Structure prediction request, 403 residues.
Amino acid sequence: MNMSSTQKPQNASVDTHSVMFITQRPELIMTEGEGSWLKDGNGKRYLDFLQGWAVNCLGHGNPGMIAALNLQAKKLINPSPAFYNEPMIRLSNLLTTNSCFQKVFFANSGAEANEGAIKLARKWGQLNRSGAFEIITFDHSFHGRTLATMSASGKPGWDTMFAPQVPGFPKADINDLESVKKLITDKTVAIMIEPIQGEGGVIPATVEFMQDLRKLTLDNRLLLIVDEVQSGCGRTGKLFAYQHCDIEPDIMTLGKGIGGGVPLAALMATDAVACFVPGDQGGTYNGNPLMTAVGISVVEQLLAPGFLESVQAKGELLRSELLALVNEFHLEGERGNGLLRALMLGRDIGPKLVDLAREQGPEGLLINAPRPNLLRFMPALNVSEEEIRLMTEMLRKLLRQEI
Ligand SMILES: *Cc1c(COP(=O)(O)O)cnc(C)c1O
Prediction:
């Protein structure tokens, strides 16, 4: 590939050809981070409202996480998954004490946790529902990029991308109970839902819909699986989004925020549903103490007195700032919960705004557009009020230019 002189990378000495091409990346190399700020190799600073796709829930360079990582690295990195280790046990206890689940399996990514949830539901179906295996999922949902989780996802085009799909994932419409009921057969074993569809464009399931799904699954002896990879770990101002709904699901998956930036995910289940026997589930890095030690630091910080309340307050501030932009520029609206929000633009200028926001100087802004007609905001949960106002100001300048 020839790089024309106008496209010269800023870090011209760095040759990126050996990095497999999977997505268009700007010619930037990120080198440092602190709190809500990222810095590139040229020293330019970016206000980071992406935070690794809702991953860095405590921002960049969190001292507690760094201390936990250092301490554990010196003590023990990997005893092998054949043995218990201290951080694995402590984090399991923390998560079960603060949720409706009694069992935890740690994995490395959200997709892997969801694979585990799918396997667990199918196993439960074999034992309890004469081999029922179908899991009803939703249009525009996102559950990961393995074959089974791509098949479970309702992303347009994904049904044929790596055909044939893994069978057994009929799709219903979010917030439409009839569309779910219509799909239930004697083959159905579970319903799997993101309490807020993140990649789909920040589309919240209503409290009523979540409650209806819980009732429907109980009435039909089906499992309710919540994929809280994006909505969990404090993102909505509760530790888990299902806790807004006064329901208790059977299975939950966590990823992203649980590790605050390190690869950690979790599959959680109630005692009644946790039916794996030796040989069913595993993974070389499951429960790895280096990662679970970081997870403990993250969850303890989320549970510190007043922290989740502060997320709710900042979510409200972000909401009112976005609503001010909606009024000022006659945009379509805003939606979301806590610090997972979207600004609906009413026109397909999302990708352009994302580029302009990043490229503006002297400081850039990092946001994303999961759909061309909206922008998504998922800042660190400890973002400051000033940073939220600064983000809005930067965006206001761009909107003035573009609208
Ligand atoms: C990001 C995401 C996943 C996939 O997580 P990975 O760690 O990328 O595998 C699954 N479900 C939801 C809701 C997500 O947002």
